[in-house]
Design brief:
seven-stranded parallel β-sheet; 7 strands; Rossmann fold; alpha/beta; binds nicotinamide-adenine-dinucleotide; globular
Length: about 240
């Protein structure tokens, strides 16, 4: 239960789904967790789950991210979970939709890494974990801008990993398959009564993943157990990629 003992972690989008499960799992493994989200009500209850601090943070706001990083100072783990799934092909993707997805899914990670990295480097290193998606590796139907933006997350991850590989920084991404979370269930419901089954059918294991199954990989990547691992996409997908 002490796999992250002595480590300080910041998590974005911790109010729901994968980010929330990661925050709780990190705290359970002994980390001092600062859980953030744009939804203040959603993170309020997390202190009861052993999370040290909750803070409202909109990862689309550069000034807010910079001020937050300045206040928090040195951390050992940065986990970026914020993301949005746009439904549709290129024909349904307006210029606004495109910019929104790239801003929330990709540029938010640029913001948080840029803000936290100098202190991480000064402190001797750290582990950055980005939640990408299997859609980055093989696009499902109607995930045009989501897949494109997550592919950018995976390559952003490798570029950061390479540039700081001798400085104690590790940067990896997790590529989940379809995971049962509030927004995923909303997307399924929007597709009608067969929606959930359609999502399950993408998973060759025949079931959806749980947020805890993604959090297990995040704990591994945050911990020193993964000290030799950097710049990779770790796939946790119930066979989606098979
Ligand atoms: P979710 O979509 O249910 O919740 C997303 C959270 O992000 C919410 O708490 C929301 O308040 C927060 N958020 C939205 N905009 C924000 C902003 N500007 N600043 C800060 N927080 C903001 O969560 P999820 O389904 O677990 O998805 C989490 C991540 O995992 C996303 O990056 C998603 O793309 C990725 N992912 C999810 C699945 C899946 O099937 N659920 C699969 C692969 C990858």
């Amino acid at each position: 239960a002490d796999r992250l003992k002595g480590k300080r972690a910041v998590i974005t989008a911790a109010a729901a789904g994968i980010g929330r499960a990661c925050a709780i799992a990190f705290a359970r493994e002994g980390a001092t967790v600062i859980a953030t989200d744009i939804n203040e009500a959603g993170i309020a209850g997390l202190t009861k789950e052993g999370i040290a601090e909750v803070a409202k943070l909109d990862v689309r706001n550069t000034a807010d991210v910079n001020a937050f990083a300045k206040r928090v100072g040195k951390i050992d783990i940065l986990l970026n979970a914020a993301g949005f799934v746009h439904h549709g092909t290129i024909l349904e993707c307006s210029e606004e939709d495109f910019d929104f997805s790239f801003d929330l899914n990709v540029k938010s990670i640029h913001r948080t890494i840029k803000a936290f990295l100098p202190e991480m480097l000064a402190g001797g290193g750290g582990s950055i974990v980005n939640i990408s998606s299997c859609a980055a590796l093989r696009p499902p139907a109607n995930r045009y801008v989501y897949s494109s933006s997550k592919a950018a997350v995976s390559l952003l991850t490798r570029a950061v990993a390479l540039d700081f590989i001798t400085k104690g920084i590790r940067c990896n991404s997790i590529c989940p398959g379809t995971v049962e979370t509030p927004s995923m269930l909303d997307r399924a419901a929007a597709q009608g009564p067969q929606g959930k089954e359609m999502f399950v059918s993408r998973q060759k294991m025949g079931r959806l993943g749980t947020a805890d199954e993604i959090a297990s990989m995040a704990v591994y990547l945050g911990s020193d157990e993964s000290a030799f691992t950097t710049g990779v996409d770790l796939v946790v997908d119930g066979g989606y990629m098979l």
